[in-house]
Amino acid sequence: MSNSVILKVEHLKKYFPIKAGVFRKIVGWVKAVDDVSFEVLEGETLGIVGESGCGKSTLGMTILRLYEPTAGRVVFAGKEISRLSSSALRPIRKDMQMIFQDPFGSLNPRMRIGSIIEEGMSVHGLYSSTERKEKVRELLEKVGLSADYVNRYPHEFSGGQRQRIGIARAMALSPRLIIADEAVSSLDVSIRSQILNLMKELKREYSFTYLFISHDLAVVRQICDRVLVMYLGRIVEIADKKVIFSRPLHPYTVALISAVPVPDPDYVVDRVILHGDVPSPIHPPSGCYFAPRCPVAERCRKDEPPLVEVENGHWVACHLPGSLSLKRENGDKKC
Amino acid sequence: MTQPQHENMLEVKDIKVYFYDDEGRELKAVDGVSFSVRRGETIALVGESGCGKSVTSMALLQLVDSRGKIVGGKVIFEGQDLLLLPEAKMRTVRGKDIAVIFQEPASALNPVYTIGEQIIEAIILHQKLSFRQAREVAREMLRLVGIPEPEKRLNEYPHELSGGMKQRAMIAMALSCRPKLLIADEPTTSLDVTIQAQILELIRELQKKLGMSVILITHDLGIVADMSQRVVVMYAGKVVEEADRTEIFKNPLHPYTIGLLRSIPRLDREQTKLETIPGVVPDPSSFPVGCRFRGRCLYESPTCCEVPPPTLVGNNHLVNCHHWQEVRQGKETARF
């Protein structure tokens, strides 16, 4: 892994207006992504985790400018892309690709697999027509499908196979950054591990940078190098994977990790049961957004905790970091 | 299978549910499933999508899609066969003796009635109570499942509640008639992990308080390890293995169970490469003859074209595989 920064997100905000009444007057804002800053290094896999509604998908879409940012900057490969015109953005788009969650909704049912994978290359005017056809066959084999499938339609494939096609499409333009939004969440256990292995292998071979958006912490642990935890549109913690799973400092991260059931009857964890629901991002609580559900909150309802680096590469937004710790009886196993 | 009869609250024997597609083909979605549930215990039905776990559990209540049919088997609940009951009798069992909570609370609740109306309806239907008394019970149930301000929530519509609250409301409704058996069909799949932890904790607590049995249907082996005492693993419409919880996780003997356990990404360890089960789950229209795991199994041999006999291999441990002895020896000598 090199140390150059490929993606830099600075104070990024994405607010959606809430409109009401006959004249669709704006009556409020959903703060889906609220002042988020982080960096991604070339060649690393950064996991973005959080529960539904925490803004992780919106963050991915805003980085790609599939949503226009409300405020803030996105710098990709040294170039600020958050304000580029769409024509200036187009050549950069081929370096940033996306793998979607729903393998059924994300492939056009009227297009053949070959055309789906080829489309990006022809849009960007890459290669000659025959080279493109050759490339498509190569890509299909790379993702573990037969090259003879080029003329088939998406409905002829299972969920896992479709996700492989989605991966081939994302790889077709040799992107530098791939944003995978819940890419394995809809797959069954035995298929999910196949796709995860494929993504790992391809990364080793082509040294992609992944932004891996997921709600599944166990999956994130297997594929990511660093992990970013979001809650209600804000970053609560960023750290190396090893650190986040052994010594999480934010009470929300602790609760999140302790809540995941582990398929081992001997695994005993001091489960932190949070009370109540995630508050609405329309009327977020004052101070720390997590304070109303936090088991250790004190003055937190008044002041908003800034995201600070507490040790090398470990960032936490909490007034009382480490006051709730992850307690496991037989600790972490090496495998 | 060896425990004395009277301990079993429910015995499912060789139940078969077949579906018929547009071309009239027979799809054997559930093909000879047997298991039993003891009083007060939680049994987990585990498997991937399409393995027939939900169809099995709904068939217990004679609830099968119009294209499907229960073609055989027995469901002995407290001494009587539920499959022989006429619809009118069946209605007194559903919701009263056996209650269900579904995966998607949003679609299981009626959007045009308030939460209160729906719970009160269930209570009045099964118990001789006045509206006022039923409302009292409903409020008590909402309080029991941890919904804040139950009085106010009774008058709210499902869309006014969050996903976790809707699931709580559904649990309140299911438990309002104090069922003896609760069927929980992926009760937390659509919920976030912190909310899932709340709901699982709640089910566990209420089970202790009310002494009911639970059939937990899930694809998440983490939840199984957490919640159940016995585990039934299903694959392609059949039971492949059944054992006590510790036995299933520590000493699995069916190659599918082993593969499933090995392919889960684990939160408690780092795996450089995840193990996989080759191939995909077969389509119900083309299940292999004999052992249905054939074609994906490392132990496959010509004998696998025969249906594997259920074999009792240890204390309460049942496995349907021709090669279980080899699997056991293989595990002793080398890694699978």
Concise structural overview:
Chain A folds into two domains: 5-249 and 311-318, P-loop containing nucleotide triphosphate hydrolases (Rossmann fold, 3-Layer(aba) Sandwich), CATH 3.40.50; 250-310 and 319-335, no CATH class. Helices cover 28% and strands 24% of the residues of chain A.
What's the topology here?
The complex is a heterodimer of chains A (335) and B (336).
Chain A: E1 5-20, E2 25-41, E3 45-49, H1 56-63, E4 71-76, E5 79-80, H2 86-93, E6 96-99, H3 113-123, H4 129-142, H5 159-171, E7 177-181, H6 189-206, E8 209-214, H7 217-223, E9 226-231, E10 234-240, H8 241-246, H9 251-259, E11 308-311, E12 314-316
Parallel strand pairs in A: 3-8, 3-9, 6-7, 7-8
Antiparallel strand pairs in A: 1-2, 1-4, 4-5, 9-10, 10-12, 11-12
Helix pairs in contact in A: 3-4, 3-5, 4-5, 5-6
Chain B: E1 8-20, E2 26-38, E3 42-46, H1 53-59, E4 68-77, E5 80-81, H2 87-93, E6 98-101, H3 105-108, H4 115-126, H5 131-144, H6 150-154, H7 163-175, E7 181-185, H8 193-210, E8 213-218, H9 221-227, E9 230-235, E10 238-244, H10 245-250, H11 255-263, E11 311-314, E12 317-319, H12 324-333
Parallel strand pairs in B: 3-8, 3-9, 6-7, 7-8
Antiparallel strand pairs in B: 1-2, 1-4, 4-5, 9-10, 10-12, 11-12
